[in-house]
Amino acid sequence: MGRMRTEGVAALVGELAARGLSIATAESLTGGALVARLVDIPGASRVVRGGVCTYATDTKASVLSVSRERLELVGPVDEEVAKQMASGARALFGADIALSTTGVAGPGSADGHEAGTVHVACAAPGGALHRLVRIPGDRCAVRAGAVDAALALLREALDGGLL
Predict the structure, then answer these.
(1) Are 118 and 112 spatial neighbours (Cβ–Cβ below 8 Å)?
(2) If residue 4 lies in a helix (H) or strand (E), which one and from where to where?
């Protein structure tokens, strides 16, 4: 999975601005890299409401209102957790749309999942999207790939009528 070019991210930010939409992020394994990619773009202040890094599992519940029961049952690397993270960020920041990332960057497995297992989600007025991606490579490659996967999901949401 190649890194989304700056022009692609700029086009996403520009489209959000043109459509009068705001965005927020909820991140785990990416540690703030997703919101950083967005704010790298001049004019991002017109659309980015904020981002939160809930790296520790319990902060997903306390900050983003992810179900504690779900986290205890399946852990943080999960489709429903990713969706709840995105919904939580959308509510927390009062944003039109929110993206989330959760998964295992490696090295090695965690919570019964192999390194490179990543869930990304997008919450918007029209519903939620989710993708499970498997990203090969070292920790750095997995984290960068997770950011790209979340941005690709944003593109899909913008094109697919979720907004």
Answers:
(1) no
(2) none
H helices present in 19-162, as ranges: 33-39, 57-64, 68-74, 79-93, 139-159
The runs of H, that is alpha helices, within 2-138 are 6-18, 33-39, 57-64, 68-74, 79-93
- Structure tokens, 50: 């904020």
What domains does the chain contain, in order, with CATH numbers? 6-160 (3.90.950.20)
Q: What confidence category does residue 89 fall into, taking pLDDT thresholds of 50, 70 and 90? A: very high
Q: Residue 105 is encoded by which pair of tokens? A: 């960057």
30, exposed or middle or buried, with CB in 10 Å at 0-12, 13-18, 19+?
A: buried
